[in-house]
């Protein structure tokens, strides 16, 4: 009973709301099945599955807010949860930024659920691990990988008549393949809502090829290089810039979107004119929940158009204060919407092979690792290349490279675009492979 | 609490701009609930025996059971407002077994004899199913049963029993102090954890532990709208294995640092630090941008702890060395052949690093680990030479030892225990030396306090660290504040450049609640002790850019 139907969910929500005495009450229920399998050293290390269901109550008296949650759905538990939430609310200090709950809105359709992912069972997971491990064992390589799948629902209703219901599935698979002597390492990662799109053998093959090709890496001097970033690598960096698309931080002067002298950089051309970034709840490759954390309908939004910043996100509180309509970021990609998922980058028509062919001297990057903010004012980040870095000369891959540490800002990167390819799904966003000039590598790493 | 939940909760990972949300772990409860007792120890023993007997009946050759009640309180404020208060409780049972030579694990929130019996049976079924993929049977280092024992974090004031109002008053006083001293924004927060953990195993241990941890946190931001510049200064507090007494601001625990303000040892003065932070955040906006090059670094313990964590703590986790973390956190440069050689110079002769789970006030301080092993201290690096790793019962045999190091932990009753970092600490110098004495001998250097940006490769060779505040040292004196500082080095090269360590009077902890490892990821709390330490000729880069 991990996935409740819309009718079942509504029944529980209405029942809980019937006990409410607060000025405003919201009841939400979410649940589902999460499963995983992990392997390393060519053997399964852990696997598990859990089913959870949780009902949460939020009660509001004036601007005092309380909440409680339970895992049981009988009438007595529902009543107790509402009473506890109301007790907590009465004792809470006022939240001056509290915004009243919303009534029913019109929501876009959802494509977040896939029956094939819902059907995943322990046998599927074990077979996936075997399919990934066996070719590696046969080739004298060592596989370590992880699959996590989810199938569940979320529903919510409030005392103003709003009712929301959605089902969703997701699958995330990554694999690292290393040579037995530890001198080569490759990696591949995929995420989908629909597991029938995942071919773990193909993903593993990519990681195997990179492991073998990265043996015997050579060092070259750090410095500024033209880089070709595969979509995973490009996504690693680009997803970090969206925290800055918040109007309040920009207005407060503590964001790279803050303008010298006050105000925001909305309307300024901050990026190369080929950069257009949108979010679109109707996109079926990266489907998203039809509402945001405030229960607002998600809407198609142009964030950057031809390099110009077109929109910043406004919370309901900040929007009211500034007299503009609220606008949320698309969410997705984990971290409660902070994961940077839900963005669609304009791309180009070049393949990675085309980009290599046109490169006189450059570096091909599979992925970045341990990325941390260095300066929030310029969005400077540091991190390292990992699991497949290659030197390009005269249009060809010449040899594998030792890994580099970089110090670079995605803002600067998006001003140094040479070429882009077809966007692919990476971490819940659509990201193109990119060729970037003058990318700053600051030192070498011996890590494989 | 898992790190991702915390980020969602606090936004601390996002440039320290806090956006409180809902605590994802545990069910919200009233503050009063946090001081109500859980079920008594006799009832826990009965439930534990139910699990052990059920597992044995199904064919388990070993089993352990953890009955855990995890309580947390977090409070967030911003400037003059309280943003969020969250009290949570979660209660359940995790059962781990060996059957057919293979591990199996299952967990349930149904803490009844029937629920526990079913959970134990599931754990055995999982072990048997997984045994088909097992190459070699699990072998555990022996551990004698400890009988019925208890252990409690030595706290003076249970933070959960301190009224929420008292905590809010202190945080708002700190916020006001920062605003009065020029801050544009200030966020403060308190996180309090109480883990009531009961462990039993077929070895004959019944261990009841009451673990408390406390973390106050402060971020002060100054903004110059004309120049478009802004800088934040983090508080110099650190998470501790202490009760609310950490918030007393005791004068004897204020350690004057070489930059002329106070650092904090076993007690934190939040208001005093907020005032200093506001002044320093403003100063940082106009501070001199560092000239890149080689500098001698003088690193305060609140900064050095993170460097120790990343460049010594992680590479010396045996499961990483063996490849179990290859797809996530990575492996390690500190391979077994280097250890076996007996002469791998990890650092200079004065570098002595211990691992322990016993230092009072540290986050790692515990009586027993989640395998029922009594916690202890052991050497990792002795006189600069790599001598050991961190290992648990099913790994320590690889090192030729027959007693686990006692560092196996799970972050919740619902998570399976595995090897986690102990406190990894640099021993203080044996000769009397203050940070001021140390700086007197530095010709061209930088004094770094507090944590900043940190990044290290997946085998722990190449790293880059920032900090909170930086001071330029010229000819033995501090001459002013610097900005845009980060240092890059290689682990072995860096620790071999260690040339002086202050004495035990300067010894302090840096800690974190969020040492992340594993898939699905688990968090672990760990401290790192050190005294102010000098490293010679380290490469410093300038991180300023214009966009």
Explained architecture:
The complex is a heterodimer of chains A (448) and B (547). Chain A is α+β, with helices and mostly antiparallel strands and 448 residues long. Chain A has helices at 6-18, 75-91, 115-118, 122-138, 200-213, 231-238, 247-251, 316-322, 352-357, 410-413, and strands at residues 24-40, 43-61, 64-70, 141-158, 163-179, 185-192, 223-229, 277-279, 301-305, 308-309, 344-345, 361-375, 380-393, 396-400, 404-408, 417-420, 424-426, 429-431, 434-444. Chain A folds into two domains: 6-212, PmbA/TldD superfamily (PmbA/TldD fold), CATH 3.30.2290.10; 216-448, no CATH class. Chain A is globular. Chain A starts with 5 loop residues before the first helix and ends with a strand. Chain B is 21% helix and 35% strand. Chain B is built from ten helices and 28 strands. In chain B, the strands form six sheets. In chain B, strands 11, 12, 19, 20, 21, 22, 23, 24, 25 and 28 form a ten-stranded mixed beta sheet that branches. In chain B, strands 1, 2, 3, 4, 5, 6, 7 and 8 form an eight-stranded mixed beta sheet that branches. In chain B, strands 15-14-13-18 form a four-stranded antiparallel beta sheet. The interface between A and B is large, with 90 and 82 residues.
